[in-house]
Amino acid sequence: MYQLDLSRHYAGKILLRQEILLDEDKLQQLLQKGNFQTIPSINKRNLKYQCERCGNHKQSLFANIPCYKCKSTHRYCRKCIDMGRVLECESMYVWTGEKPKWDHYENPCSWQGKLTIAQQKAANRMVEAIKQEEKELLIWAVCGAGKTEMLFPGITEALKQGKRICMATPRADVVRELLPRMQHAFEDVPIQALYGGSETKEGTAQFLIATTHQLLRYKDAFDLLVIDEVDAFPFHADQSLPYAANRAKKARSTTIYLTATPRKNHVRRMKRKNLPHVFVPIRFHGYPLPIPKKQISFSIKKDLEKNRVPKAFINWMNHRKVPDRQLLIFVPTIKLAKNMIAAFTKLLYSNGWIESENMIASVHADDEEREEKVQQFRNKETTVLVTTTILERGVTFPSVDVAILDAGHIVFDEAALVQIAGRAGRSVDDPTGEVIFFHDGKTNAMEMAIESIKAMNKRGGFSKA
Ligand SMILES: [Zn+2]
């Protein structure tokens, strides 16, 4: 491998020894020449251990294993073990040789579509931020605004300038959905996907699409970092991920945050005018967001406990405006997703609401067939999907109604409810859709979600929704 290839391969990463595909002599040579440097894997600061890859300093997340090299035991980090073991007695490596030269593309975008006025405005702002090397820009776009398309001009600009790009998103499902769309839009640009189960873990392309977790492998790597769904779990809940994102970008770089439901810290910064942002209040098809309806069902908790379908749900099914629309049924727990499927199947089939018992499925985070089931629903091979919050965001089905059972449950916070409601009415051919919250007492989250959807519609120019 030439020096240039090596730099493309290894620059911007924090590497374990086994991730460097060079023999020991070659590596030692490069270390002597100053092309690589070693860094300690686990540091001791103020008597506390810290993992230098994931930043973990929770002492209970360190453990010991016997070390084959020095015949004693050694500490390792349990927190980031799924990306290869960080062992105290083995250094990690960073590339300190020549900087990689990435390609400058003259005209990289092969997308033929046209942005709406609202999308174009956000896209222009993003291009400006990249040109000016502004540090941060938040794009607040309602569910269904078409934010992936909005990114195309910014990514085009970055590729023209020979920048290295990473689009990070919290969930592997979304990486899998984004990859073909980006490949289609940038046909001549090599793009790699990086997530827990991805085929390759190389992550050496100029343009990467990765789960936020995978950012832990990088340091000073990206000129443009796009963080999709910045408000979402686990980016929101796991401190190591903002730490990783911050480290993965270069000192001179632009970070674009995308969100439909910004969290308090970002709202506060926007209000104080120390976070530049652009708001996209209109869905790409120009119709307002569907406003969720609330339906009281006093027995709902007891019904679900006994795996019975609540009466209120059956009543609603009897009066659906478009009965043949596909239906997403959200339940609060994995257990319910598993246990309720039999009752739903029986009810829907016996009432003729599904053509056969195979037209309904359930899906949850631990489901091994999750990808296939989502794809089958997308292909309309099934018409009803019972799901947990795993499908609350990032996935697009053109034409669905959405029912949430036990919408007052703690897992359905304001952002989750807004996101779930945003699954409905996403296609220009069917821009409306019903969203219904079944509950046994309204919660703040429900009220606030409905208020915020109304407020977004108002900002989008829909005076009455
Ligand atoms: Zn770690």
Give the structure's gist in a few sentences.
The protein is an alpha/beta fold and 465 residues long. The protein has helices at residues 3-10, 24-32, 117-131, 147-160, 172-185, 240-248, 264-271, 300-305, 311-318, 334-339, 341-350, 370-378, 414-421, 444-459; strands at 36-39, 42-45, 48-51, 62-66, 73-77, 92-95, 136-141, 165-169, 191-194, 207-211, 222-227, 249-259, 277-280, 293-296, 326-330, 360-363, 384-387, 400-405, 435-439.
Task: Please describe the biggest sheet, giving its number of strands, its sense, and whether it closes into a barrel.
Answer: 7 strands, parallel
Q: How many strand units?
A: 19
Strand percentage: 15-25%
The pLDDT mean sits at 93
Uncertain runs are none
* Order of strands across the main sheet: 9-10-8-11-12-7-13
Measured distance between first and last alpha carbons: 61 Å
Q: What shape does the CA trace take?
A: globular
* Structural class computed from helices and strand pairing: alpha/beta
Query: Which cofactors or ions or other ligands sit in this model?
Result: zinc ion
Protein described:
With 465 residues, the protein is an alpha/beta fold. 30% of the residues lie in helices and 20% in strands. It has a seven-stranded parallel beta sheet with strand order 9-10-8-11-12-7-13. A six-stranded parallel beta sheet has the order 14-19-18-15-17-16, sandwiched between helices. Strand 16 (360-363), helix 12 and strand 17 (384-387) form a beta-alpha-beta unit. Helix 3 runs parallel beside helix 4 (147-160) and helix 13 packs across helix 14 (444-459). The structure holds zinc ion.
